[in-house]
Design goal:
410 residues; alpha/beta; TIM Barrel; 13 helices; 18% strand
């Protein structure tokens, strides 16, 4: 059974990417250094290398998205390229990203720019990263230097992508730099100092953007984990939500918008997060196949910051079977539609990802609407690209009915 839902005029409809994951040869970044350190062999099973070579092939990528009917494209600016050494800004790289903005507009794609998508310059990491006393000022300086990129033809900026994940993995990364047991240290909680610094850095970036480009609507995106509670896990789930999610969502109160990024759910018992239930369908990342996550995440954020408009900046599935990608996305969009019908202010949807790319240690998890040959870089669109793009072109979402489980959710 299928139904149709008409998107409002001006609704953002696109796909997302991140510079390090698609550009290739991002040699001045911290992640490049970590990939090649030899210490994180369990975490980085493959190095990024050329990845999709989108640094050079971005016109083709934009042509494909526009051709399928997408009206928006979210991509990131690579800080390590713009400022490869402290205080040394590359006019050539600023011009490169400005050309991407202009190229998007020429193709009918509205750009949503992300200023920080996990990676930082190697020199920033080596001097203490987000725990450095200068971190907030340095990020603000970068945002100000990058302003020519978004001086015009950019209406939306995401300051920092998934700050809660950056904070969560800060202690993991520090431990892994002296030990190779990244996977074993993956249960570490959010780093408090990093959390404080990221929120301050976001506020500084918002101030800079509003001062230099007051026309831009600015926010940040948060990975929204919805915790399904088993008996006895209520207190632990509330603690986890407060520490790793809610503090970052609440920091967006007063912003022009907040980005919701949702993929799956997590079960929580008295001792913490539980494994994916036995027999549950899984994706290539090992996460549970759970399309209802998006609708739940939108409602969670709307409850926490009811006056802040929502943009879904990431939602997707790591899957080699594209028919399953379409089914998952249809189920996710049902949750988005139902939230909007109930009056929640959702302004846009960006699918993760436009391309099969480098997923922070491996090329195996394929999230893309478009496949990329890693040797020839030939792009091969999947049926999901045409299906999802057509929805943006017609402003009509065609949905497949999915049942929603009724459970205790934090």
């Amino acid at each position: 059974m299928s139904t149709s839902f008409q998107l409002p005029e001006g609704f953002l409809w696109g796909a997302s990417t991140a510079a390090h994951q698609i550009e290739g040869m991002n040699v001045n970044s911290d992640f490049w250094a970590h990939e090649h350190s030899g210490l994180l062999t369990q975490r980085f099973r493959e190095v990024s290398g050329d990845t999709c070579d989108s640094y050079h092939r971005w016109p083709e990528d934009m042509d494909l998205l526009a051709g399928f009917g997408f009206t928006d494209y979210r991509f990131s600016i690579e800080w390590a390229r713009v400022e490869p050494a402290p205080g040394e800004f590359s006019n050539a790289e600023i011009a490169h990203y400005r050309r991407m903005v202009e190229g998007a507009i020429e193709r009918g794609l509205r750009p949503l720019l992300t200023l920080h998508h996990f990676t930082v310059p190697r020199w920033f990491d080596e001097q203490g990263g987000w725990e450095s006393e200068e971190a907030v000022e340095l990020f603000g300086r970068f945002v100000e230097a990058a302003a020519p990129i978004f001086a015009s033809n950019v209406d939306h900026i995401c300051t920092i992508n998934e700050p809660n994940m950056v904070a969560r993995f800060a202690p993991v990364r520090k431990a892994a730099l002296v030990r190779s047991d990244w996977e074993q240290s993956g249960t570490a909680g959010s780093d408090e100092a990093t959390t404080v610094a990221l929120i301050k850095a976001h506020r500084r970036a918002v101030e800079v953007i509003r001062r230099l480009t007051p026309h831009v609507k600015v926010g940040w995106s948060v990975a929204i984990a919805n915790y399904h509670v088993v008996p006895g896990g209520e207190a632990k789930a509330a603690e986890m939500a407060s520490d790793s999610r809610d503090v970052f969502v609440l920091a967006a109160d007063g912003d022009d918008w907040i980005g919701v990024q949702a993929y799956t759910r997590a079960f929580v018992g008295p001792a913490g997060q539980l494994p994916v239930p036995e027999g549950a369908q899984k994706t290539l990342t090992g996460w549970e196949y759970y399309p209802q996550a998006l609708g739940e995440s939108i409602r969670t954020v709307a409850r926490l910051v009811p006056e802040t408009p929502i943009i879904v900046t990431e939602n997707g599935i790591a899957e080699s079977d594209d028919t399953r990608r379409i089914a998952y996305t249809s189920g996710a969009l049902k949750g988005l539609r139902d939230a909007m019908v109930d009056g929640i202010d959702v302004r846009g949807y960006y699918h993760w990802s436009a391309l099969d790319n480098y997923e922070w240690g491996s090329f195996v998890p394929t999230f893309g609407l478009i496949a990329v040959d890693r040797k020839t870089f030939v792009r091969t669109p999947k049926p999901s690209a045409a299906w999802l793009g057509a929805a943006g072109q017609s402003r009509s979402i065609d949905l497949i009915s999915h049942d929603v489980m009724s459970e205790s959710i934090v």
